[in-house]
Structure formats: C-alpha cells, structure tokens
Automatic annotation (TrEMBL):
<dbReference type="InterPro" id="IPR050465">
    <property type="entry name" value="UPF0194_transport"/>
</dbReference>
<feature type="coiled-coil region">
    <location>
        <begin position="111"/>
        <end position="216"/>
    </location>
</feature>
<dbReference type="GO" id="GO:0030313">
    <property type="term" value="C:cell envelope"/>
</dbReference>
<protein>
    <submittedName>
        <fullName>HlyD family efflux transporter periplasmic adaptor subunit</fullName>
    </submittedName>
</protein>
<keyword id="KW-0175">Coiled coil</keyword>
<feature type="region of interest" description="Disordered">
    <location>
        <begin position="42"/>
        <end position="61"/>
    </location>
</feature>
<dbReference type="InterPro" id="IPR014315">
    <property type="entry name" value="ABC_heterocyst_DevB"/>
</dbReference>
C-alpha cells in the first residue's frame, strides 16, 4: 500500500518537472537555430530569388525566365583539323587573325614534293598542248595546199588518162595495117610490139593514177575528220594529262589546310614541327554573336521566337531576342556556381541573338546569365 507524499516531497517533484520542461524547450530552440543555418538546396526558383541566390538554370521569377547560357558565334565554332599522323610544316595564322574563306591556314608534310609533281604534270600538259597546236597548223597548211591543187591535179590526171587511152586505141586500129609490113622484119615487128606494150602500160598507169586521185578526194573528208580527232582538246591523250594534273592538285591540297569560311582564329591547338593529332585550330565568325541558353523544360512553352532577352557579359547588359527554340530535352551542361542551386535539370537549348557583339566577341564560350521576357505568344507543343 503506497504512502501519501508529504509537502516537501511534492515541492521537489514539481521543481524537477520544471527543469525537465525547460531543458526540452531549450533543446527545441537549438534545433530550430541549427536548422536555420543549414545550407540546404533551394527547391524552387522563388526561394532562390528571395534568398539572393543566383537563379537556377531555367528558373523563372515573376514574368521573367532566368537561365545560364554560353556565348558563341552565330554560325558556331568551326574546329579545323589536319590528317592525324602527318607532320605540320608551318602554321600561317596566329590567334586573333581574321581570315577569309579559302585562305591558307597551315602547310603539312610533303607539300614541297606535291608542288613539284603538280608543276611537272602541268609542264607535260603544256608541252602536249604546244605540240598539238603545231600539228593543227601543219594540217591547216597541208589542207590549204591540197585544196588549191585538187582541181588542177584532177584535170591533169584526167587529160593524161584520156591521151594515153587515145594513143593505145590509135595504135590498136593501125595494127592490122602495120603487121603485114613488119611481118618479115623481126626487128621492126619487135619494135612495134614493144611500142604497143609501152602505150598500154602508160594508159593503165594513167587510168590507175586517176582512180587513185579520185579515191583520195573521196576519202579526204573522213581522213581529215580522223586528223582533227587526233589533235582535239578532248582527245584521250589530252584527257589523261588533264587527269594527271587533277590528281597532282588533289595531292597538293591534301598537304594544305584552308579556311572553309571567313572568321577569326580563336585558338591554336598545334605547333609547327608537331605530328598532327587531328585538331589544328578553332575558327568563328564573331561579327554575329548568340547566347545558347539552357532553359528549364517547364518554362519553354512560355517562350516564343522574337521574345526579348537580356544577357549579362562582364557586368554589361546586352539586349537580344530569341531566334530559335530547340526541340530536344536533355541534361544541363552549364552549372550554377552556387552550391545551393539545383544542378541536375532537364533543359532545352534556346538561341538568343545579341544586338551588340563588340563585347561578347571577346569572350567566346563564356558562361553568362540570361533573363528572358516571354511575350504574349506561347510556344505550343509543335513549336512556332
């Protein structure tokens, strides 16, 4: 059976309860204070703006959309390379040089030999062209002479044939009268037979010469066509020499690196004397600059092409406008420097054309802050 507590025991018990209660209250206050100093990540763009933390990529505060971006030439950065494994003889440009399309940037191993091969091929073709031109002139002179003599030669051959045929006919008609006269004289008979034979030979030769001349004149157009084909610029020999020049020129081009487009040399990745590993230099046309922003996917439907934007470059605010909104959602590549900001986001790339490029062109590939101001139009699922 429990005994009732006296007055002293009740007072001590009450004081004990008060001490325990005060300790619990103090512990709770300490936990609250510790929680207020904990740098826990901010979970919303509004929390970031209210706490003074730089907005997360793709965050929106009020009507504005904040994002991180990277400065690039509007046409992009071109990576110019050389064949791996080839020694670099010389680099003709320096960082910061302006180049035009087609300008020589670098010379690779074997350039001197390729130049000699091209010069040899061109000399061979030049010599062949010269010989072909001389042959054309010779043919022209020969044809001019042939054309002038064609008529007289044909007339002379025709008259000679007619004359010899007439003499043979005359002697043939006289043979019945002459044979009895020389029948008893063997020498005279032999002379008559020899004379008749000589006339027949002359007649046959004159007839053959006339037919040969007529055949030459008949075949003359075809012969001249073959001659023209042999000295034509499109002849097989000329084409072979032209192809040799093309091959030599290609071999020379393989030892040269030319600028594919105009722009500014942004950086050099190799030096003369080194063996190329691929990249040689980077080139960009900085006359037009853009900011490639990574906008949080939930803010993208609010944006439309033409929306105004502001880009902060080295403390200077540069105006711009949205020129392109991507369709591919991916992980953000730009990271906020504040440890409390969200780092792993799903973003869409948005291109912003800058109104002024003088300052931005000095900081290609620089990470900058962007503020976009969505207009009245909204970008639907299919895009503008």
């Amino acid at each position: 059976m429990t005994k009732p507590l006296g007055r002293g025991s009740s007072s001590r018990l009450a004081r004990t309860h008060l001490v325990i209660l005060a300790g619990l209250l103090g512990l709770g206050a300490g936990i609250v204070l510790l929680g207020s100093n904990d740098p826990a990540p901010l979970r919303s763009p509004s929390q970031a703006a209210e706490s003074g933390v730089r907005p997360n990529p793709g965050s929106s505060v009020g009507d504005a959309v904040h994002a991180l971006a990277r400065l690039e030439p509007a046409a992009g950065v071109l990576m110019i390379g050389a064949r791996p494994g080839v020694r670099i003889e010389s680099i003709r440009v320096s960082e910061g040089d302006s180049v035009r399309a087609g300008d020589l940037l670098a010379i690779l191993e074997g350039h001197s030999q390729a130049e000699k091969q091209l010069a040899l091929a061109e000399a061979q073709k030049k010599s062949a062209d010269h010989q072909r031109e001389l042959q054309r002139k010779r043919l022209a002179l020969e044809r001019e002479g042939e054309d002038r003599l064609k008529g007289p030669r044909l007339d002379a051959a025709t008259r000679m044939n007619d004359l010899t045929q007439q003499r043979v006919k005359q002697l043939r008609d006289l043979l019945p009268k002459l044979n009895p006269l020389v029948d008893k004289d063997e020498r005279a008979k032999s002379d008559l037979a020899q004379t008749y034979f000589q006339l027949e030979v002359a007649a046959n030769k004159a007839e053959l010469d006339l037919k040969e001349l007529q055949a030459q004149l008949d075949f003359q157009p075809r012969r001249r066509a073959l001659e023209d084909e042999g000295v034509a610029d499109e002849s097989p020999d000329a084409m072979v020499l032209a192809r040799q020049i093309d091959l030599a020129r290609v071999a020379l081009e393989e030892t040269e690196v030319h600028a594919p487009a105009p722009g500014l040399v942004l950086d050099l990745f190799a030096h003369p004397g080194e063996v190329s590993s691929g990249p040689l230099l980077s080139l960009g046309d900085v006359s037009a600059m853009v900011a490639k922003a990574e906008v949080y996917q939930s803010d993208v439907p609010r944006l439309a092409v033409g929306d105004p934007a502001e880009v902060s470059v080295q403390g200077q605010t540069i105006a711009g406008k949205v020129t392109q909104i991507g369709r591919l959602v991916g992980r953000n590549g730009l990271k906020n420097v504040d440890p409390r900001a969200l780092q792993d986001l799903h973003v869409v790339e948005v291109s912003i054309a800058l109104d002024q490029t003088a300052e931005a062109s000095n900081y290609v590939n620089m990470q900058v802050d962007v503020t976009l101001h969505p207009g009245t139009r909204a970008r639907g699922p299919g895009g503008p």
